[in-house]
């Protein structure tokens, strides 16, 4: 927003200029909280803000003439900056002129000369009085004391300045009155009226009676700024009807009150030819026009002079590049900032005028930002779309200012805007399902598997911690079997695992970041327990106490192949560790019995003699693990006469038929097919998850 106030120049410090809180539409008590501060564009501090009352106060007494000189308007520009949210308000204060200066002539006494043969109507230009006040408070008119020979004439110059001249109304006679004493009074238009006076002394001279005449007396020249030094501005056209020295004219500058002596530093005048040339670079931005007064004086006795007035108006060219001013930049900005969030306040100015001073700002179209015009020459850079720090952690924003001149001039300024991270990304495991293997009976603390997750956020939002969730699938909590390092995701055993009790574990692992609010993800690690040969075979039949023997009676005439008994054993392990083999321990004497290696059947190997006594056999059952474990049983076989041979126990047992063999083959193929289909289905489900 832009506020406009006015204040007379003679007010004392502490004078209330305007009610900022009311005009801005904010509460007074919020001004301090929003850190309201005042920035003067000119660098000088003339005002202050009363935060308690919310008003703009005068900090020092203003002098309009010192601040703005002869400018028709006098304005001071301020900037009010408020935070939370960041806002910029422009304040323009007009300094009003008061009639605090009286007119004053450059010299208190003016001496003029006029020939006695001067014709009525001859004009004698006078010095213009100066009044620093403006408008109605500036010089309004001039008055001349009463005289029989002279009257006052007032001409208006092109810039509105009133130029007094003394006009001869009645022929002079030097012999009667050689000197005339007059008083010239300058009056301003203030209330009350103020005035200044100068004494005018007119000496009446004899002889040379034709002054130089400028044609035209007032002229105007248009000249481009920055023309080369030495460029011809104009050549004065002055004529003098006299002859000889009385018609020989010399030229000289005559200073004026508008810019006393200033133009003499910029222009040169040839005293003989009347050519006016530039002698220093001209700058439109410093002054757009110059009023030059020239005196044309002949060499008569007495000398007569004429006066020419030249107005040089400069044509602006586009010789100044725009200037970019970053008033405020909010960096970093949160990546979840809503569209329209103010990022920076940017000011631009160009010292040229017209189209040459019209500036437009541009930024790259692919950036998620746009420029919004706040008021004249002030812009706000706001977000135009969503920001994502994971895609772009910052932006190099180049602001380009281009004016409308021909040729165009441009300036650019680049600043870096950092995007602050918010916790908008959950951690992500490299795989939602993992498989691990661990040997049973491993020591507690054995490393099983390491899961890994990543988080595209940064800082605490990307600091990950791992934990194990309880899925309730085991009898005891999963945390009694496994633990996880919360920093690196390594899973360790808590206790020794028993394959025979649990063959596989589903370990749900959760990873959580340290953001606020925290985000998390889960993965499942299938831990397969590998069997170890830690169980010896257990003889189920015959079941005898440890250290005892099993007694078995057989017919004394049992034939070879006779089934004496069968050893039945089991092994709690699995796979190769559970493959059992049966054998007789070596003895000192040859025994007429043998043990089937796989089935554990004990049969008669050779015919028994009638006189044979009991036989003591030690049958050893051994598994296929590494190292191999075994168990043994002692069997005492006693031949008896009255035992009846059971021919069903002979070696001629019925052999499996071909149909039984085919049925077994079909069963194996079916199991393999079902296993393959199940694996494919589990793979598809895992991929979908």
Explained architecture:
- There is one protein chain.
- The protein is mainly β and 689 residues long.
- It contains four helices and 49 strands.
- The strands form 15 sheets. It has a four-stranded mixed β-sheet with strand order 1-7-6-3. It has a four-stranded mixed β-sheet with strand order 8-14-13-10, with no helix packed on it. A four-stranded mixed β-sheet has the order 16-23-22-19, with no helix packed on it.
- The relative contact order is 0.06.
- The model is unreliable at 645-657 (pLDDT under 50).
Task: Name its key features.
four-stranded mixed β-sheet; Immunoglobulin-like; 4 helices
CATH topology of the largest domain: Immunoglobulin-like
In total, the number of strands is 49
Discrete helix count: 4
Structural class by SSE content: mainly beta
Give me the secondary-structure topology.
Layout: E1 2-8, E2 16-19, H1 20-24, H2 29-33, E3 37-40, E4 47-50, E5 55-58, H3 64-68, E6 75-82, E7 87-96, E8 109-115, E9 123-125, E10 139-144, E11 150-156, E12 162-168, E13 179-188, E14 195-205, E15 213-214, E16 218-224, E17 232-235, E18 238-239, E19 249-254, E20 267-269, E21 275-278, E22 289-298, E23 305-315, E24 323-329, E25 333-334, E26 342-349, E27 359-362, E28 369-375, E29 378-383, E30 394-403, E31 410-420, E32 428-429, E33 433-439, E34 447-450, E35 453-454, E36 464-468, E37 482-484, E38 490-493, E39 504-513, E40 520-530, E41 538-541, E42 549-555, E43 563-566, E44 568-570, E45 580-584, E46 593-595, E47 601-604, E48 615-623, E49 630-640, H4 658-688
Parallel strand pairs: 1-7, 8-14, 16-23, 25-31, 33-40, 42-49
Antiparallel strand pairs: 2-5, 3-6, 4-5, 6-7, 9-12, 10-13, 11-12, 13-14, 15-18, 17-21, 19-22, 20-21, 22-23, 24-26, 26-29, 27-30, 28-29, 30-31, 32-35, 34-38, 36-39, 37-38, 39-40, 41-44, 43-47, 45-48, 46-47, 48-49
């Amino acid at each position: 927003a832009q506020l406009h106030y006015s204040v007379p120049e003679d007010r004392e410090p502490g004078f209330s200029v305007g009610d900022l809180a009311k005009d801005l539409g904010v509460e007074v008590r919020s001004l301090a909280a929003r850190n309201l501060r005042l920035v003067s564009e000119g660098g000088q501090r003339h005002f202050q803000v009363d935060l308690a009352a919310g008003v703009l106060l005068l900090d020092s007494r203003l002098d309009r003439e010192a601040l703005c000189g002869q400018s028709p308007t006098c304005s001071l520009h301020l900037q009010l900056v408020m935070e939370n949210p960041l806002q910029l308000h422009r304040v323009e204060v007009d300094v009003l002129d008061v009639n605090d200066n009286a007119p004053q002539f450059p010299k208190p006494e003016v001496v003029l000369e006029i020939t006695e043969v001067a014709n009525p109507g001859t004009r004698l230009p006078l010095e213009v009085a100066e009044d620093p006040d403006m408008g109605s408070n500036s010089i309004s008119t001039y008055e001349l004391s009463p005289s029989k020979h002279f009257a006052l004439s007032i001409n208006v110059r092109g810039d509105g300045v009133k130029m007094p001249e003394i006009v001869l109304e009645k022929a002079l006679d030097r012999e009667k009155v050689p000197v005339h004493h007059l008083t010239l009074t300058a009056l301003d238009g203030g209330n009350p009226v103020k005035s200044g006076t100068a004494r005018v002394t007119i000496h009446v001279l004899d002889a040379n009676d034709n002054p130089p005449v400028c044609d035209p007396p007032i002229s105007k020249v248009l000249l481009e700024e920055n023309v080369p030094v030495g460029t011809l501005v104009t050549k004065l056209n002055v004529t003098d009807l006299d002859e000889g020295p009385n018609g020989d004219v010399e030229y000289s500058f005559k200073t004026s009150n508008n810019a006393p002596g200033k133009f003499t530093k910029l222009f040169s005048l040839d005293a003989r030819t009347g050519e006016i040339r530039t002698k220093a670079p001209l700058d439109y931005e410093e002054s757009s026009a110059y009023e030059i007064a020239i005196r044309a004086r002949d060499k008569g006795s007495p000398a007569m002079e004429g006066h020419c007035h030249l107005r040089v108006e400069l044509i602006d060219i586009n010789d100044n590049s725009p200037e970019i001013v970053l008033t405020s930049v909010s960096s970093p900005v949160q990546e979840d900032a809503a569209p329209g969030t103010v990022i920076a306040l940017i000011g631009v100015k160009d010292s040229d005028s017209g189209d040459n001073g019209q500036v437009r700002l541009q930024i790259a179209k692919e950036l998620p930002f746009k420029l919004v015009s706040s008021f004249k020459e002030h812009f706000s850079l706001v977000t135009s779309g969503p920001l994502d720090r994971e895609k772009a952690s910052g932006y190099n924003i180049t602001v380009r200012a281009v004016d409308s001149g021909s040729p165009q001039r441009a300036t650019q300024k680049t600043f870096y805007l950092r995007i602050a991270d918010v916790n908008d990304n959950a951690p992500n495991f490299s795989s939602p399902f993992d498989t691990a293997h661990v040997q049973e009976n491993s020591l507690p603390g054995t490393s099983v598997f390491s899961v890994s997750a990543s988080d595209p956020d940064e800082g605490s939002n990307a600091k990950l911690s791992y934990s194990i969730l309880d899925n309730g699938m085991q009898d005891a909590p999963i945390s009694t079997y496994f633990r996880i390092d919360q920093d690196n995701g390594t899973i360790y055993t808590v206790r020794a695992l028993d394959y025979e009790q649990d063959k596989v574990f589903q370990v749900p692992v959760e990873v959580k970041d340290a953001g606020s609010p925290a985000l998390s993800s889960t993965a499942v690690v299938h831990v397969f327990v590998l069997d170890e040969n830690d169980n010896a075979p257990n003889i189920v039949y015959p079941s005898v106490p440890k250290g005892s023997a099993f007694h078995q009676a057989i017919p004394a005439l049992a034939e070879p192949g006779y089934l004496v008994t069968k050893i039945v054993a089991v092994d709690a392990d699995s796979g190769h560790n559970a493959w059992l083999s049966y054998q007789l321990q070596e003895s000192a004497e040859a025994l007429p019995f043998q043990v089937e290696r796989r089935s554990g059947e004990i049969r008669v190997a050779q015919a028994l003699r009638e006189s044979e006594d009991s036989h003591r056999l030690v049958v050893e059952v051994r598994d296929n693990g590494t190292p191999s474990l075994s168990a043994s049983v002692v069997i005492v076989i006693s031949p008896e006469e009255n035992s009846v041979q059971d021919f069903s126990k002979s070696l001629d047992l019925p052999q499996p038929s071909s149909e039984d063999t085919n049925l077994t083959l079909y069963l194996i193929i079916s199991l393999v097919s079902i296993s393959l289909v199940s694996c494919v289905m589990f793979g598809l489900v895992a991929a979908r998850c």
